[in-house]
Amino acid sequence: MLKAKIKADRDYKIGEIDKRIYGSFIEHLGRAVYGGIYDPGHPLADERGFRRDVMELVKEMDVPIVRYPGGNFVSGYNWEDGVGPVEERPRRLELAWRAVESNEVGLNEFAYWAKQANTDVMMAVNLGTRGVDAARSLVEYCNQKSGSYYSDLRRKHGAEEPHKIKTWCLGNEMDGPWQIGHKTAEEYGRIACEAAKVMRAVDPDIELVACGSSTTEMPTFGSWELEVLDQCYEQVDYISLHRYYKNHEKDTANFLAQTIDMDHFISGVTAMCDAIGAKKKTKKKINLSFDEWNVWYHTDGEQVEPWETAPKQLEDIYTVEDALVVGSMLITLLKHADRVKIACLAQLINVIGAIMTETGGLSWRQTIFYPFMHASKYGRGNALITKVDSETYDSREFTDVPYLDAIVTENGKEVTVFALNRGEEEMDLECTIAGVTDVIEHLVLWDEDRYAVNSAAEPNRVVPSGDGNAQMDQGVCKAVLKPLSWNVIRLKTEN
C-alpha cells in the first residue's frame, strides 16, 4: 500500500481563490450553441429557445463566468452580424472551423442565457480581421447605458439595460499560424495596447486579458509573452494561458503526470510578468487567465464535412482516467491561486464538454463534470500552503512524480482536501490540519474500469459516491484512497 501525508495550516495561505477560476467557455463551434444550449424545438426549451435542463446542469456546476464567442471563431467574427432582428442576420462562412454560422444566437441572446444560468459573460473581441474601432464599439454597445449610437442601438434591439460585461479578452491565440489574422508578437502587442486604450476609455471599469502563448510547445513561447507585455503591460490586467493534455498512448502513469507541465507553465509565465514589471519599474502586477484548459485528444484527426451548420464536431467522450487529469488540473490551478485569477474549462457543452446533449433529446454529465463541480462548490475561500509527503515514480516524460496530488482550501467554516491518487494501488493518507474537528463527508470518483464513460444509454455509469472512509483519529484525518481515484474530504472547523 502506498503511503502519503498532508500538512496544512489555516493561517498559511497561498491566496484568496477568485471564483472566476471556475469559469468555462462556449464557442460558436459544433453543437456548443446550436443543439447545445440553444435548441428551440426541444420540449424543455424556454420561450427564447434555450434548454432549461442544460441551464440546470450549468447551475449545478456553479460556473461564475463563461468565455464567449471564441476561441478561433472570434478572429473572423463580426459582432454586428449577431444583433438586431434575427430574420435579417446574415449567414456567414465561418473559416476557423469551416462551418456556416447562422447568427441566430448572438450577443444579446447569449447575455440573456448567461443571466438565466447564473453566470457572467467574459467577452472576446476580434483582433484578427477587425481591430480597435470594432472593439470600442462593442464595449459601447454592451456597457453604455444610453445616449450614444451603439447603446441606443442595443436598446432598439430589445436590450434596454446594459450588459455590464466586466472581463474582456483581447483576441484569441494570436501567436498561432492557424489563427485568422495571425500576428507577430510586436504586431499583436501594438494592436492589443491600442484596443485596450479605447475600450477602457469607453468603460474604465473593465478588465482586459492579453493573449499569451497558445501552448508551451509554441516556438515563440517566452519571447511572445515578453514582447507582448513590453508593449501593453500598463493597459492590461491579465495574460492568457491555454493547455490541453492527451493520452494517445494509453499510458496512464504519464497521462496523470502531465499536470507537472501545467505547473511549470504557470510558474514560467508568472516569472515573465514579474520580469517585465520590474523592467518597467511599476508596482502593478499582471495576473493570469488560464482561459482554455482540458483533456482533448479523443477526436484528434476527425474529418467533418465543410460548410454545414452546427455539425457534430470535437465531441470527446470522457473516461474516468480523463476525469482524474481534470481533477489534477484543478488542483494545479488552486496551487497558483495567488496569480491565476481566471480559468475556463474548455468547453462547457458538447464540444470537448463537461455536459453532453442529444439535439432534441437527453442531456447528461460527462465524467469530467464531477471534479469540476466538486472544486467549484467546495473549493471557495482561500487556498492553503499544502505540504505533501508522498512516494514518487518516474514516467515516460516526467521524473519524481508524487503519487499523491493534493491541495487544501478553507472558507472560514470548513476545510476541504482535494486529493488525487495517481497510483495503481490503495493509498494510506494522513492529513494534519490544525483546528479541524470532524469529517463532513468523503466523496470518491473511481471505477474498476478506468476507461468507463457516461453516455445517453448509461448517463450514470460513472458517478461519485459518498462512501469514502475518511475519519478523525486523535486530531488527524485518516483515509484509505482507492487506486486511481479523485477524492474530496470535507472537514468541520472549530469556528
Task: Provide key terms for this protein.
495 residues; alpha/beta; Immunoglobulin-like; 2 domains; 10 helices; globular
Q: Could you describe the 3D structure shown?
A:
Helix 9 (320-335) runs parallel beside helix 10. Strands 20-23-18-17-14-1-19-22-21 form a 9-stranded mixed sheet, with helices on one face. Strands 2-3-6-7-8-9-10-11 form an 8-stranded parallel barrel, surrounded by 6 helices. A two-stranded antiparallel sheet has the order 4-5. It is α/β, with parallel strands linked by helices and 495 residues long. It has 2 domains: 2-9 and 385-493, Golgi alpha-mannosidase II (Immunoglobulin-like); 18-378, Glycosidases (TIM Barrel, Alpha-Beta Barrel). The protein has 10 helices and 23 strands.
Tell me the name of the CATH homologous superfamily of the largest domain: Glycosidases
Rg is: 22 Å
Beta-strand portion reads 25-35%
Cα distance spanning the termini: 35 Å
Number of strands: 23
Number of helices: 10
Describe the global form.
globular
Mean pLDDT level: 97
- Spans of at least 5 consecutive residues whose pLDDT stays below 50 are none
Q: What level of helicity do the residues show?
A: 10-25%
Strand adjacency order, main sheet: 20-23-18-17-14-1-19-22-21
Based on the coordinates given, report the CATH architecture of the largest domain: Alpha-Beta Barrel
